[in-house]
Amino acid sequence: MRKGEFGQPYTSDYVFDETVTTALVRRGKQEATVKAGKLILGSKEESIPPLARFVRVDERAFGEAWVNLKSARFARLSFTDHTILAQMNDLKIDAVLSFDSGFDEIVTRIS
Fold it and tell me: Which of 9, 14, 60, 108 could lock onto 80 through a cystine, CB 3.0 to 4.6 A?
């Protein structure tokens, strides 16, 4: 991703939340949480460039995600995953970098 091999990477506040929370739960240490956050957001103090362009989940994406979640069309996807799909539509993104195979039937997934 850092090499730009797949184009401009994007992430959202919801994905950031899931990432740092997972780091805390799995490692049980605040340092792991902060390290994960710095890898995504970057750190001027440590000369770490941001990993991706940060996009917030807005009202429109939230609403689309909620409608799609309620429809159960993609029942294996979480609400955060549905926000990702909504943002992909908005930003004309054609692939997602994810370990979640639930995306496979919907979009191109890079793992």
Answer: 14
- Whether residues 51 and 68 share a domain: the answer is no
- pTM, two decimals, is 0.87
Tell whether 81 and 99 lie within a shared domain: yes
Sequential pLDDT tens for the chain (111 residues):
777 788 889 999 999 999 999 999 998 889 999 999 999 999 999 999 999 999 999 999 999 999 999 998 888 899 999 999 999 999 999 999 998 899 998 999 998
Q: How far is CA 80 from CA 31, 43, 48, 55, 62, in A?
A: 24, 25, 26, 13, 9
Q: Which domain holds residue 108?
A: 57-111
Asked whether 103 and 89 are in contact (CB, 8 A), the reply is no
| Overall number of domains in the chain | 2
Asked whether residue 7 falls in the same domain as residue 51, the answer is: yes
- In whole angstroms, what is the distance from residue 7 CA to residue 51 CA? 12
Write the DSSP symbol of residue 49.
P
